[in-house]
Structures are given as structure tokens and as C-alpha cells.
Amino acid sequence: MSGEIIIRTEAVTRRFGGFTALKNVSVGFEKGKLTSIIGPNGAGKSTFFNILSGAFPPSEGRVVFGDADITGLKPHVYPRIGISKSFQITNIFPAFTVLENVRIALQAHCSRFNFWSPRSRLGLEDKAHSLLQMVGLERHAARLAKELAHGQQRALEIAVALAGDPKLLLMDEPTAGMSPEETSAMMDLIVRLVADRTVILVEHKMKMVMGISDRLVVLHHGEFLAAGTPDEIRNNDEVKRVYLGQ
Ligand code: ADP
Ligand code: MG
């Protein structure tokens, strides 16, 4: 690994009662790259994701973002320091239009927004449209969010996550429940996102992320198994053994 590290975990362990879901995991993630965290079901991917995104703290260990120790920081602070996440379950207002959903998200992030100023309102509108363009939903701006197909709702959710202009975007199984066409559209979108920011993706379908990821981190039974480029991971004997039969 050669580039600057944007976020890293140091010996992170997470227990649920007597069960250890994550054991002593230390991983650094490179800035401006797409890194996918992979591993079979139950490997601890979502637990790791939740610790990176601040949903809950590790039982032991630290999370460091840039130079700052962010271990135990409250989840609502994360967007303000530049970390956004897109949930496995959709996180949008179904009865509002696509455009309204993005506008609400932009307003929530814009502390200097002046509701009475037409110029402020127009700026917001422009930003909302460019975000919708980015995720390929511009044509659907006036539709209600609940009328969108599943894949489009996930794209809208990403537009909402991008409203705060995060340096780091975290996604847990962004293609869960998607058709092959939706999956490939989502993969294209993720690749476009990496042009301007760092993306960390959690995915249990290894083949799917092989083609688009710069690096992969493999978890197995809550432990770090391997990290490397897709080629290095593909040729790693331990990884092959874990994924045998999948
Ligand atoms: P993955 O996302 O890789 O499928 P998870 O991180 O969801 O794996 O889960 C890892 C292990 O931790 C699983 O055995 C799961 O049952 C357990 N686990 C996850 N969350 C909890 C929880 N809140 N309480 C108890 N056990 C949990
Ligand atoms: Mg999971």
C-alpha cells in the first residue's frame, strides 16, 4: 500500500454479550480509492462497517480518521467531519419527490442556508439537480420516492448521502436485492463516485467487486484474513479456501 491513509482501525474488537463478532482487526484504507470489505456471511463485515461509520463503538481498539481519534464519536457527528454512509435499508422519505429528498438532505447540511433568500434557494436547487444527475435520477426528479424501482431508490439514497459532500462514503451491500441490470448500474455509479472521494464498500459477493475495487480486505470469522489488490486476493490460497464452493 503506497498512498495516504484516510481512515484506519487499530486492534478493533467487538463483542455482543459473550460472542466476539470482530477480533483484533487493524486495517488502513487508502485515500481516493475504492476498497471493498469482503467475506462470507457472518464474517463480521456489517459489524466492522458499523464501527467505521460510528453506529456503535468497538469494545476494544481505536478508529483513526486522518490524524484524529474518532473512537466512540456519536453517529450524528460523522457527517460533519466528512463521513457519510448509505444504509442497507433505504433511508429516504417515500412520500416526498426525488428532488425534495435531495433538497432536504442539502438543507440539513447547509448551516448558512437562508430560507428567505431566492439566491440561496436557487443554489440549493442547482446542487440538488447536479446530485441527481450524478446518480442518474435527473429524469425522475418530480416523481415520488416510493414510486421508484428498488435500484433507483438505492441511487437516491446515495444522492442523499452525498449531500454533505463527504470525503469518505461507506456503503453496506449497495446491490442487495437488485436485479443484474440494477447491479451493473450501481457498480458504474460507485466507480464514478470514486473520482472525487474515498469509498469503502461492504459486499459478500466477491466476484462483483473484483472488477471495480482498487483494494480488497477479507474478513473471516471476525478476523482479518488478507488485504491486497484484486489480483493478489484472487491468488491468495487462504482466501480461495474460505470462498470454496461459493
Ligand atoms: P456479515 O455482515 O459479515 O454477514 P455481521 O457483522 O453481521 O456479519 O455478523 C458477524 C457475527 O456477529 C454473526 O455471527 C452475527 O450473528 C453476530 N452479530 C452481529 N450483530 C450482532 C448483535 N447485535 N448481537 C449479537 N450478535 C451479533
Ligand atoms: Mg452484513
UniProtKB/TrEMBL annotation:
InterPro entries, sorted: AAA+_ATPase, ABC_AA/LPS_Transport, ABC_transporter-like_ATP-bd, ABC_transporter-like_CS, BCA_ABC_TP_C, P-loop_NTPase
Entries under CDD domains matching the protein: ABC_Mj1267_LivG_branched
Domain ABC transporter: 7-246
Parts of the chain that traverse the membrane: none
Single GO cellular component term: plasma membrane
GO MF term list: ATP binding; ATP hydrolysis activity
PROSITE patterns in the record: ABC_TRANSPORTER_1, ABC_TRANSPORTER_2
The keyword Nucleotide-binding is annotated on this UniProt entry: yes
Keywords: ATP-binding, Cell membrane, Membrane, Nucleotide-binding, Transport
Any Pfam family: ABC_tran
The protein's name in its UniProt record: ABC transporter ATP-binding protein
Organism ancestry: Bacteria, Pseudomonadati, Pseudomonadota, Betaproteobacteria, Burkholderiales
